[in-house]
Structure to design on (154 residues):
């Protein structure tokens, strides 16, 4: 399921996620190394044309990780301090490298530094965690094919 399908299924959560990612430029991408251990790297996420795009420098380790194993998790930058205005958002899924006309069209529109890798994402989970009324921890969990689940704890 791509970003457009998710946004159609859960427009409120999609809007909050885009706002959270839009608040800061750099975020944290988790990939899997060759030996299966986690790797975290900085990344700029791009919501464009109904897709969540991940662009990376040519031959970067995170790009090589995704070529080998497409699973990823992308954590929104929490920002300065600890208030996490808007909550904490994580998007997980699989990322698939694109080339040809699709990459050319993206490059023409965005003008990223060349050469670069471009990955289109398929979502498996979106999670938002926030504090409500300075009293409750609220966790919203979405997975394809299931309704949004909201957990609330004091």
């Amino acid at each position: 399921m791509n970003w457009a399908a998710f946004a159609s299924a859960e427009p409120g959560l999609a809007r909050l996620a885009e706002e959270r990612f839009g608040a800061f430029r750099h975020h944290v991408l988790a990939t899997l190394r060759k030996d299966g251990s986690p790797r975290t790297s900085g990344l700029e996420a791009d919501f464009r044309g109904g897709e969540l795009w991940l662009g990376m420098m040519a031959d970067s380790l995170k790009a090589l990780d995704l070529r080998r194993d497409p699973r990823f998790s992308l954590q929104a930058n929490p920002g300065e301090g600890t208030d996490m205005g808007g909550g904490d958002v994580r998007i997980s899924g699989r990322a698939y490298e694109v080339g040809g006309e699709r990459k050319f069209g993206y490059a023409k529109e965005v003008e990223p530094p060349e050469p670069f890798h471009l990955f289109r994402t398929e979502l498996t989970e979106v999670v938002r965690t926030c504090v409500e009324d300075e009293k409750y921890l609220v966790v919203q969990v979405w997975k394809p094919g299931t309704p949004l689940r909201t957990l609330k704890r004091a």
